[in-house]
Structure prediction request, 312 residues.
Amino acid sequence: MTVALTAEEINDRLKGRVVGIDVSKWQIPGELWAKAPPEILSWCVLKASQHNFVDSRFHEHLQNARSFGLVVGAYHFLDKRSDAATQVDAYLRAIKSNPVDFDVCDLEGVSDWPTSDAAASRALEWMERVEAATGRRPILYTSERHLKHVSTHLATRLGEYKLWAVSYWKNCPPGDATPRLTKAHSDWCMWQWCSDNLLPDLNEGWFKGHRLDTNFFNGTIDDLRALAGGNAPSSRPVIAPTVAFEAAWDYNRDRHTESWRFHALVDRMLGAGGGWGSRESILSGVAAWQLAHGLDADGMIGEATLAALDAE
Prediction:
């Protein structure tokens, strides 16, 4: 029987931990980011892509995470439906105008693939291609179970990548606890230990009512910043959190009277599918693109933005 910990006991176990979250389009209303407790959260990983498409809320989540000053990683959910090149293309489209600090290959659901080795080979090719394109060595998100039947030579190659281990606990793990490792790894970089958000400060405040994956980083905050390229979060590009969504939407609607033209422009900025989603998601993506091109990040596609787009 699992004995529930008190809030005080959980907070005591969190002392010295570097806590992060990972989210996709299914989690976190945008306004909740601004209420996140800074004494708890240091980093996050955002779903950027899957198969051949970009996650519809990636740009929105990235804006909010950057505004909060977090170290930000992005992950691609590996999908058996498309080859590695197609999936890398989707991921690179997502991060092209939205720079992140580290990259993750999400390898799970291996039992749905034709073979475990097919999944492992696809993951290796994805990581090799992304490293060649970004200059950053990706992190592998997976579990002991998912690599159980992968052949030894492929497992050995996967073991060359840092591990984000999936290993759940019923309660917040004590300070000396470690995750279950895959047969390919002898150490871990990150640990997803909870999918229900058991942190009391979050559960009673910021995240109340929202299921959320919670993680530890294996090291100090300085180690995390080193992983992020040596930059403290405050030195990273920050998109102003005060984009006036209604005003920007009205401006774009009035300037680009045919909606398909507006969506086509956004697709050129953010990749196929970028022009579809919520207003906040679309305009956050436009603002991120503008910031990356030295423009005012206001979400309004005016003359300066059009000129920069045509110059690409």
Residues 125 and 205 are 41 Å apart (CA to CA). The chain has two domains: 7-235, 245-311.
